[in-house]
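quick one before i forget lol
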Amino acid sequence: MRTPFGVTPDGTPVELFTLGNTEGMQLSVMSYGGAIVSLRVPDRDGNLDDIVLGFDSLDAYIRHSHYFGAIVGRYANRIGRGRLQLDGSRYQLPINDEPHHLHGGVRGFDRVAWQCEPFRDGRGEGLALRHSSPDGDQGYPGTLNVEVRYLLHEGNELQVDYLAATDKPTPVNLTQHSYFNLAGAGRGDILDHQLTINADAYTPVDCTLIPTGKTVPVAGTPFDFRTPVAIGARIGDPDPQLEYARGYDHNFVLRGEAPAPTHAARVMEPATGRSLDVFTTEPGLQLYSGNQLEGVVGRGGRRYGRHSGFCLETQHFPDSPNQPVFPSTILRPGANYQSRTVFAFGGVFP
């Protein structure tokens, strides 16, 4: 289903696309930012509820800067001081998260209208979104042509494919920035959600949330989610890393990057029985515990609070262009950027 969702300040019409499956799961995506506006998922008893945070109107998405549900790029996460050196040339990117560059800049991919085309295949209903980012856009070199494909499987899986090509070397790091609350959006915080992350190490940050360049074992720290732990169990521990971010806002080093998606994380919500498993081809996973949501009024007038949602952003590592020991994020002409993440939802947690 395709319906109007408003008009941007520059007069660009925005549309809302709604996909569904026979299990009753329903996904709504708008062309502005390619954002997931709604994701209705059954619980253990088959009851549907919206499990992503969001707003009722396009105007609210434009006014707020929380990246609710958006496609994030050209570079997801932070680049230190907005400084980029590539093949002997220096580039200065916009500073929009003082003192750093965050999620592609002032007008990243979350702030543009994507070209959208619904499709269907043997696995379910989908939506292909395309955008061309010109040379110099937000300070980045090269024209980058991007396609993101959402596919809602019959088995209650949401597959997200990212593809990109460039005509000049440029850093690329794309992700999906939905805030989840498996109890239902606006129904309290996510601190009781049980989280598992398949990572033996994480990348600590300095007081401005830029990685130090080290990878540190999670063993014996509040970042050890190798077995199920409530997100809130250690979030208040007197650990400098948690104090810097007012909670979790850290990249985890997954156990393996592979051509096919491998299991990265699992979240279970005890009251509803909903579960979320994340599979990805990416080497990293950013856990964000919704540390800055105080006072945000979301869909249906529900007031969100701190920790009202969590993000699991599959990605390459933050600040990789300035961290030579991290996996490279540089895409060169003739090469294709390809990444896949699958969000698999269940309702059988006892």
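fyi The first helix runs from residue 58 to 63.
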